[in-house]
Structures are given as structure tokens and as C-alpha cells.
């Protein structure tokens, strides 16, 4: 699937039940994971989001948009993410 982020956009605080690979088409994607240092990947780079880790993803730019492709494999009825409150 693909996702687009405007400057300053972020995902909800969430977990995944399976690994998720994020490939950056445009811009820079920053992932903050509980208990870990933030990771930023830029255009042409990819990263794997680990399962069962609390996280949120950001477009930290104030000017540039962000476009990513997300790859994952899961059981058919498994939700993509589990939001946390």
C-alpha cells in the first residue's frame, strides 16, 4: 500500500502484529519506537518496523511532503495496525 504525509503529519501511536517494511519514495520518514532512538530514512531507503513495538511515524519536514510504499504479509483477517491510547 502507499501513504502520503503532508509536512508535519504523523501516524497514530500504534503497534503492528507483523513486520512492516517502509520504502521512501519522496521526503524523509522518521519512526519513533518506545525505548529506542528515532530512526529516519530518506528517499530511496527502506526500514523494517518490528512487530509488537509501540511506535509512531512522522514527516518532520515543515515544507516537504512524504510518500512511502508499505510492504507486509499477514493473515487475511489481521488488522494492519492496533491503535494505542
Tell me about this structure.
The chain has a 4-stranded antiparallel beta sheet with strand order 1-8-3-6, with no helix packed on it. A 3-stranded antiparallel beta sheet has the order 5-4-7, with no helix packed on it. The protein has a two-stranded antiparallel sheet with strand order 2-9. A hairpin with a 5-residue loop joins strand 4 and strand 5 (39-42). It is built from no helices and 9 strands. The protein has strands spanning 2-5, 14-15, 20-26, 28-33, 39-42, 46-49, 55-58, 66-72, 82-83. The protein has one domain (2-73): Jelly Rolls, CATH 2.60.120. It comes from Paraburkholderia unamae. Residues 3-71 form the Cupin type-2 domain. Pfam families: Cupin_2.
SSE order and pairing:
Elements: E1 2-5, E2 14-15, E3 20-26, E4 28-33, E5 39-42, E6 46-49, E7 55-58, E8 66-72, E9 82-83
Antiparallel strand pairs: 1-8, 2-9, 3-6, 3-8, 4-5, 4-7
InterPro entries: Cupin_2 (IPR013096), RmlC-like_jellyroll (IPR014710), RmlC_Cupin_sf (IPR011051)
Protein name: Cupin type-2 domain-containing protein
Domain Cupin type-2: 3-71
Task: Provide a concise account of the structure shown.
This protein has 85 residues and is mainly beta. The protein has a single domain, classed as Jelly Rolls, CATH 2.60.120.10. It is built from no helices and nine strands.
Amino acid at each position: 500500500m502507499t501513504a502520503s504525509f503532508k509536512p508535519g503529519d504523523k501516524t497514530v501511536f500504534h503497534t503492528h502484529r507483523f513486520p512492516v517494511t517502509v520504502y521512501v519514495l519522496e521526503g524523509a520518514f522518521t519512526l519513533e519506537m518506545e525505548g529506542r532512538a528515532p530512526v529516519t530514512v530518506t528517499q530511496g531507503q527502506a526500514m523494517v518496523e518490528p512487530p509488537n513495538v509501540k511506535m509512531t511515524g512522522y514527516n518532520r519536514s515543515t515544507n516537504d511532503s512524504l510518500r512511502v510504499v508499505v510492504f507486509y504479509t499477514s493473515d487475511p483477517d489481521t488488522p494492519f495496525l492496533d491503535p494505542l491510547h
